[in-house]
Design a protein that fits this description.
Distance between the termini: 24 Å
Helix content: over 70%
Order of helices and strands: EEHHHHHHHHHHHHHHHH
Shape: globular
Structural class: mainly alpha
Low-confidence stretches: 1-19
Strand order of the largest sheet: 1-2
C-alpha cells in the first residue's frame, strides 16, 4: 500500500521515497509472467543434453518422432509443469504464513511444515506399507498440520516472536529429520523409497502424482487468494482486524488449512523443498508492499520461476549428474536467512 508523509492542512500528502520508487504493480505482474515463460523455456531446453528452442517448439506442437521430441514431451515437459505447480504452491504458502504470523522468517520449510509432511510420508511407506500416492498423500497433509501446530505451540502461539518461531522450527525440523534417518536405518528394505522422499527434487517425478494432487493444490490456492483481504486486515493487528469486521479466529483457521493443503500436497509430490516460501515474499515486496491482495499473486508467479531456475542450475552445475533443487534453494535461502537475522530490526524481536 502507498504511504504518505505528514503534510500541513490543505496540502496534498506527499508520497514517501519508498512509494515513489516502487514500480507500478501491474508492471511487476507482466515482468513475473515474462520471467516465468523464460524459466519454463530454459527448463525445457537446458539439461544434460541441450536442445535448441526451435526443436523444443516443434517437439511441443508439431512432433515428428525425433529423439528431441521424446525428451521434451516425455521427460522435460512433465518436470516443468510439476515445477510450476509446486513452486506456486510453496510461494503462496510462504506468503500466507508470513502475513498470518507477521513474521519475516516464516517459511514452510523453516517452520517444520515440509519436514512434517516428509516424516509422515516415510512413516506411511515404512510402517504401514503404503506405496500408492493416494494413500500417503493424506499422511503428508496430516504431517504438515501437526508440524505447524507443534511449532506454533513451542514458539508461544500469540507471544511468538520471529526468533522464537525460528528456533522452534529448527528444533522440530531436527527432531523430524532425525526420525526419518532412524527409519532409514531401521527398515533397510524401504531405504530407497524413503530416500526418494527425504530430499526435494523435480527429477523423475511421475506426472500422475501431480494430477492426483492437483485438486488439493487448486483448493489451497483458491483459499489463499480468498483470504487476501482478511489477512491484510489481520496484519494491522487483531484489534484493527475486528474493527474492520474480520473474524480473527476464522482467518487463522482457514489460513492454516490453506498452508496445509499447499505444503502437504507439494511435499507429497516432490519431497521437502525449503526456502522458496522465505525468499519470494521478501523479493516481491519491492513491487507490492505489504498488501496481500497483490503480494500473493506475485508469489504465485515468481516462486515457480525460482524453483525452475534452481532446477536448471542443478542440472548443469555437475553435469552429467544432478544436484537436487532443494539443495540449490537451501543454499540461496541460507544466504538470505543469514542476512535477515543480522538485521537489527529482526534480531531485536
Amino acid at each position: 500500500m502507498l504511504t504518505g508523509t505528514r503534510s500541513r492542512p490543505g496540502e496534498t500528502p506527499r508520497l514517501s521515497a519508498t512509494s515513489r520508487n516502487r514500480p507500478p504493480r501491474a508492471t511487476g505482474l507482466v515482468i513475473g509472467v515474462a520471467l516465468l515463460v523464460v524459466a519454463a523455456a530454459l527448463s525445457l531446453a537446458v539439461g544434460t543434453e541441450h536442445i535448441p528452442l526451435g526443436d523444443v517448439w516443434s517437439g511441443l506442437f508439431s512432433p515428428s518422432g525425433s529423439r528431441f521430441d521424446n525428451i521434451v514431451r516425455e521427460l522435460r515437459l512433465p518436470r516443468t509443469l510439476i515445477g510450476i505447480a509446486i513452486g506456486a504452491a510453496l510461494g503462496l504458502a510462504g506468503g500466507v504464513m508470513q502475513v498470518l504470523t507477521r513474521n519475516p522468517l516464516a517459511d514452510p520449510g523453516l517452520l517444520g511444515v515440509n519436514a512434517g509432511s516428509s516424516a509422515a510420508v516415510v512413516t506411511a511407506i515404512s510402517v504401514f506399507g503404503i506405496t500408492s500416492f493416494t494413500g500417503y498423500l493424506w499422511f503428508a497433509l496430516v504431517g504438515a498440520c501437526v508440524a505447524a501446530v507443534a511449532v506454533n505451540a513451542l514458539g508461544g502461539t500469540r507471544a511468538a516472536t520471529p526468533v522464537r518461531l525460528a528456533l522452534a522450527g529448527t528444533a522440530v525440523n531436527a527432531a523430524l529429520f532425525g526420525y526419518v534417518n532412524g527409519l532409514q536405518l531401521w527398515d533397510l528394505s524401504t531405504l530407497d523409497s524413503m530416500r526418494y522422499w527425504s530430499v526435494g527434487t523435480l527429477e523423475k517425478r511421475d506426472p500422475e502424482l501431480l494430477l492426483t494432487a492437483l485438486p488439493l493444490l487448486i483448493a489451497g490456492a483458491l483459499l489463499a487468494f480468498s483470504l487476501a483481504r482478511p489477512l491484510g486486515a489481520l496484519s494491522l493487528g487483531e484489534d484493527h482486524a475486528r474493527a474492520l469486521g474480520t473474524s480473527v479466529r476464522r482467518t487463522r483457521v482457514l489460513s492454516i488449512v490453506a498452508i496445509t493443503l499447499l505444503c502437504g500436497s507439494a511435499t507429497a509430490v516432490c519431497g521437502p523443498i525449503g526456502f522458496v516460501g522465505l525468499m519470494i515474499p521478501h523479493a516481491v515486496r519491492a513491487f507490492t508492499g505489504p498488501d496481500p491482495r497483490w503480494m500473493l499473486p506475485y508469489c504465485a508467479l515468481f516462486a515457480p520461476t525460482l524453483l525452475l531456475v534452481a532446477d536448471v542450475i542443478g542440472r548443469v552445475a555437475v553435469a552429467p549428474s544432478e544436484i537436487q533443487a532443494d539443495i540449490v534453494t537451501s543454499f540461496l535461502g541460507g544466504l538470505l536467512f543469514i542476512h535477515l537475522v543480522r538485521q537489527r530490526k529482526v534480531a531485536q524481536l
